[in-house]
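Researcher: Sequence of Cell wall hydroxyproline-rich glycoprotein follows. Predict its structure.
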Amino acid sequence: MKPFHCLFLCTIFLLLDVSTATDVERRRPLSYQGDPLAVDPGLKIDNPRLRNGYIALQAWKQSMLSDPHNITANWIGQDVCDYTGVTCWPTPEFPHELTVAGIDLNHGDIAGTLPNELGLLYDLSLIHLNSNRFCGTVPQSFVNMKRLHELDLSNNRFAGTFPQVALQLPSLRYLDIRFNEFEGELPRKLFEIDLDAIFVNNNRFSSALPDNIGKSRVSVIVLANNNFRGCVPAGLGEMGETLDELILTNTGISSCFPSEISKLKNLTVLDLSHNQIVGELPRAIGEMNRLELLNVAHNMMSGKIADRICELPNLDNFVYDNNFFSEGSASCPKLPSFADKTNCLKERPNQRSALECQRFLARPVNCEGFKCNHSNPEQPPKVVPCPSPQPPPAQPSPPPPTKPKPSSPPPQPLSPPPPQPSSPPPQPSSPPPQAQPPAPNATTPMCPCQQPSAPPTKP
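Model: Prediction complete. Tokens:
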């Protein structure tokens, strides 16, 4: 090589080293739990909201352990509004200033945790994370999301006790934490805040059902497939004006059928299957004219099925198999769909043996004086032991059974809504303070979220 060429190349390498060193000095380091976040040295974001969004989303991306569909591959650079799954809207005070208002990573199969820095998304109206592999706990920094309207963490691997931060979000109307590993008590406050829909099914909650459940104004409540104990709260009857769907499948409850449920005149779906409910099905159920689905299968109920129940004008599906009913109704087989096998109905096929029915019905259940004491839950009247009901197979989280009917319409957004929200989210709030990343948790729980998810079964 000629001396001139050697000198030229050496000069170029020297200039590159000097340039690199200058860039390093110009970096404004951010960090995620002590680890540096790479920031473009030329990054200039004048909009404080979008700078907050950049910090939060870069911290989140670094906390992700796996992204098999490369959903976050374009989470690079300062244009956070172009990131996949991120929606920006104009702010109310400054129409030309954008803010991060929605995040939708549904069905991404992304593994990782939720970092504290997400609390910088002050204007977030909805966050949808259905069907991923996020684990750990929900950061307390979510309390900064004063405008959060929808929180969907369903079908992930979150653990710990009920995420109390969800009870501190004044704008929250839709809460979906089903198909996770939350455990412990279901807080009373859950039924005191202004929600439209509550989905907590398929977790590990193990308390008695709070006796103030009837105070809630929700239209849909799903508590199925948990380990609750005690009885069905009679206070459920207080939800007659708002409740549209009530699903308590396989919750572990043991009680007489509360006649107060018949006060739920707007109810369209009632599912109490796979529990230990005893006694008769109240005749007053026949006054619930909007009822479309009634499922009391796999309990220990007995007595007569009233004609008026099977003659309800909108009832399409009545499931009462695997009980001890001894007298049916001629109207029930006329329904579009019904199931009555494994009862004690002499005129119907596929029933229990005469001996099994005789043993059970020889000790009739008297529910007249039964009362539910939640401080010391009273057991229902004793009956002849029978095989414990087998829980239905759990399935990954499907879409909500129906779109919840909001008790009050949320504020209208200032621009087109983000992808497929469950209900319209509100406007962003006023300008946030300057970006100061929340202090990271000292002990972020480790969680087994790196394994691929099992293929979802069809709901």
